[in-house]
Amino acid sequence: MQPNYNPKDIEATAQQYWEDKQAFRAEAKSDKPKYYCLSMFPYPSGKLHMGHVRNYTIGDVLARWHKMRGYNVLQPMGWDAFGLPAENAAIANKVPPAKWTYDNIAYMKQQLKSLGFAIDWSRELATCKPDYYKWNQWLFLRMLEKGIAYKKTQVVNWDPVDQTVLANEQVIDGRGWRTGAIVEKREIPGYYLGITQYAEELLADLDKLPGWPERVKTMQANWIGKSFGVRFAFPYTLDGKDEKLWVYTTRADTIMGVTFVAVAAEHPLAQHAAKSNAQVAAFVEKCKHTSVMEADMATMEKEGVDTGLKVTHPLTGEQVPVWVGNYVLMGYGEGAVMAVPAHDERDFGFAKKYKLSIKRVIKTYDELNFEKGLRENHLLEPALLSKYRVPIAAGTEHIEEALSLYLRFDPDEDWKPSYADYGFCVNSGKYDGLIYQQAVDAIAADLKAKGLGDKQVQWRLRDWGVSRQRYWGCPIPIIHCDTCGSVPVPDDQLPVKLPEDCVPDGSGNPLHKRADFLNCTCPKCGKPAKRETDTMDTFVDSSWYYSRYASGFKSDAMVDEETNYWMPVDQYIGGIEHAILHLLYSRFWTKVMRDLGLVKYDEPFANLLTQGMVLNHIFSRRTDKGGIEYFAPEEVELVKDEAGRVTGAKSLADGSTVDYQGMGTMSKSKHNGVDPQALIEQYGADTARLFMMFASPPEQTLEWVDSGVEGAHRFLKRLWNFCVLIQKIQETNPQSDDDIQKASGIYGKHIMGSPSQYPKVARREIHLTLKQANYDLTKQQLNTVVSAAMKMLNALGEFPLYRKEDFEVILEGLSILLRLLSPICPHITHALWRELGYGDDILAADWPEPLAAALEQDEIELVIQVNGKLRGSLRAAKSADKATLEQLALAHEAVQKQLAGGTAKKVVVVPGRLINVVI
RNA sequence: GCCGGGAUGGCGGAAUUGGUAGACGCGCUGGACUCAAAAUCCAGUGUCUGUGAGGAUGUGAGGGUUCGAGUCCCUCUCCCGGCACCA
Question: A900 or A48: which carries more pLDDT confidence?
Fold first, then answer.
């Protein structure tokens, strides 16, 4: 055994051992229960960053832990290899995205291997390979046949200078990131996948996922957004023709408070008004430059203009003005909304801004309760006043004043959130007094009778637009023929291969210039035709890779029967940022595959662990052109205020000022990723893994700091040194108490306390800590598993070897410690397990379980509190009953001191824990 | 803005789910070893107060429930993730 811990040697040796034994190859034939452990595959951005190390170490710990507990484990790995960064790299370095991507994969694969992950590399895949993306195309064609895929117009960001479509990420404050040009909205045709056809099932099946975090299920449910409302129409006459303006609302109870209607700029009514009204025309034009992003839509200044047109209120018959609003989107719902300024915050602000009338039609339950509470109590109670936040002195009798303060509805003042609360109708004619559901029922019935509307279920979820006007993606298998229109590529001509030698230059899709790709013959009529140049959203690639891993990689089928053995994934691990889109798309894709008879499962991921993001500082600066550039944290010097908070930064290169953007996810595009390579080279993979797991629990956001790496490494060195010592003692083959004392160097020295108690205490500590660690593993709280291993080493190291049998306690404890630590630090534990002669392969060892006999104790310590404050403690027999404990506590000097001769009002005894004396 | 989550010493975090707040580690301070340094080992370390035993105070802010609140309830502040073309 080497006297010093040398991670380079032992890690290489351990990895070679696993390689030789093909230790992580998964076979679908097994008597053992299966465990499919999957970490989200990486985008090959160039180098791993700490988020990857965190993600894959968590997965590896769980995979190895299950392997040791007797499961048949599959842990695969691959590459989410299509995407925008490859094109950006091509623009910057003039290298084809394919070459850049394959080089990155090679480098990152070697990085992953050096971390010692228990991956079955025989199942590696890359989504940019034709044998993979062929099946994207094949399934897309099946969806087309079933009417799940279809074509319609989509709105995109258009950079007028580069003449190209921009991703949302590439639009900074309404301008193109490279050109600084003001971005325009453009409508172009594109393909959509009908995920809304599965909305009901996607929502309902969340209940079949007990192994998912509640927060993720809540987010998905809110995203799908099932709502029960009323769709109805405002009739109007235009150019002598009777027309209807349709809207949808979930608040039909407020319909009598409608004072205007707002339509999108692209709505036919707005378009009509624009023809004769220059003001409307100008506004419609201006709306072309508003953002397509929801976050921008929600925060931007709400603006509008009166079209001068009027529609008829379907129930009152009143004439209602029609406005164009920049906050109404043509693509969503009807492209028009009813406005009830009294009970909707957005409408309220809009009405006040443009001096439109506000009509109150709802009185809330709170108002009713408040009024009732006041009248019944006569006196104003503080609790009631504070609950309703009425600024009036408590205890007075000014009931009418309090009522007027709370009940006052004043459109001249600011909006109050309570205006949007549910309640009962007022100022609503025949509907007065009806509560929400009654009012909605009555109003829907009346509208239906007039043929102007009905109840309708609506979803927030929209169909999935999959067309991307980009080169580095999976080609959409469509051929455009002048005679036959859009024709699907026949199955036997799949895959439509993407040429791998293009170099994008930022001005549109290079496929447009590739005659060899573009020109083809129409499969229907045989005439010359053009290929579709749009490629698929990369979320398509990641929507089914898990089922491909789990199958035999057949060239003649998307998946095979093996997928039904491994699937669903038993543990999926990935960043919380994927909580909605990726996970929802994957669930949808699985259900489509199931309906096509390809797979037999409804849901792809049985258990989900959402890893917290690894954050680092973000620094950026505007370029001369108005675009944006990012600086890596190592390129700048922080500027801090007196409180030590980061306020800005300076470039180390030229001392110029750089903007501080706060903390954010490590990413290639923001240049704030930390490469683990230096860490691995200096300290080894085990230290990197240990530190990452110890830093915080998996689900928690982690702000990157590397202080503490030393500590993790120190622990491994201490462990190594301790094992060296133990091996030396072992080699002396001690036969007596004297032998063991001589070997451990305590012979003839005085030992404090009673040496016979030490092994018992240490052994209990080991088993108790193991119990906690095993429990933490089930909770996937891995940072405290590391603490447990540290505690065990502390316990073993503190304990003097006095009797011959004490050495057995050490050997037992050490075997527990090594096995517990092995999923986190597989290399060092592999080496030590063999060195100390426990066996050949720690992976084949049984997982340790705490022994009841080691945990037993007959006396326990109880805490004594007086009025909930800690005042002392006492030792009592484990079997002592409540009355005995109460007597002991009352007799305790600390309690006597507090009582000062008085008597206790009450004594609370919590068995095994504490006694609280109330005086 | 909307949806979801978070906030505990100088720092990362722990707390058996309402029962001893600060486990474990980092950092810092002091000491041992050394010609010296590194490494290693030992001791201390929330804050205030006290020579000391001790006392007071303390889990983002404010209020509430309880014998007892980091944990439950209400209100607020700040931070992070997502918002449909980053992946």
Answer: A48
- Residue A402 is predicted with a pLDDT of 62
Task: Identify the pLDDT of residue A578.
Answer: 96
Q: What is the pLDDT of residue A364?
A: 78
pLDDT for residue A381: 56
- Cα A325 from chain centre: 33
Report DSSP letters for A214-278, one per residue: HHHHHHHHHHH-EEEEEEEEEEEEETTEEEEEEEEES-GGGGGG--EEEE-TTSHHHHHHHHH-H
Reported as a pLDDT band with limits 50, 70 and 90, residue A414 is confident
Task: Output the DSSP codes for A868-900.
Answer: TEEEEEEEEETT--HHHHHHHHHHSHHHHHHHT
Determine the 3-state secondary structure of A341 from DSSP: coil
Residues 6+ apart with CB under 8 A from A24: A18, A73, A75, A118, A119, A120, A121
Supply the pLDDT for residue A894. 80
Q: Chain-centre distance of CA A272, in angstroms?
A: 44
A8 touches strand B (CB under 7 A): no
Q: Which two tokens stand for residue A363?
A: 């009185």
Yes or no: say if A101 and A121 are a contact pair by the CB < 8 Å rule: no
- Which nucleotides of strand B lie under 7 Å from a protein CB? 1-6, 11-17, 19-21, 23-27, 39-42, 55-56, 63, 67-69, 74, 79-87
The confidence score (pLDDT) of residue A752 equals 67
Which residues of A in 722-781 have their CB below 7 Å from strand B's atoms?
776, 779, 781
Measured between alpha carbons, how far is A824 from A838 in angstroms, rounded to an integer?
Answer: 19
A598 alpha-carbon distance from chain centroid = 28
Which residue is associated with the tokens 């409307």? A280
Nucleotide at minimal C1' distance from the A797 CA: B41
Place of tokens 């011959």: A804
For the cut 90, the answer to whether the pLDDT of residue A15 exceeds it is yes
A817 close to A786: Cβ distance less than 8 angstroms: no
Q: Is the ipTM of this complex over 0.85?
A: yes
For range A753-768, the mean pLDDT: 85
| pLDDT for position A647 | 72
Give the residue with greater pLDDT, A681 vs A753.
A681
Q: pLDDT over 90 for what percent of chain A?
A: 69
Surface-to-core class of residue A515, CB atoms within 10 Å of its CB (0-12 exposed, 13-18 middle, 19+ buried): exposed
Q: pTM for this structure? A: 0.94
For the four alpha carbons of A867, A869, A874 and A877, in that order, the dihedral sign comes to positive
State whether the beta carbon of A84 lies below 7 angstroms from any atom of strand B: yes
3-state helix, strand, coil in chain A (%, to 5): 40, 20, 35
Is residue A264 scored above 60 in pLDDT?
yes
Task: Decide: helix, strand or coil at residue A185.
Answer: strand
**Structure token digits, residue A388:** 């309703």
The nucleotide minimizing the C1' distance to residue A695's CA is B12
- Shortest CA to C1' contact from A389: nucleotide: B75
Would you list the DSSP string of A100-132?
A: HHHHHHHHHHHHHHHTT----GGG-EETTSHHH
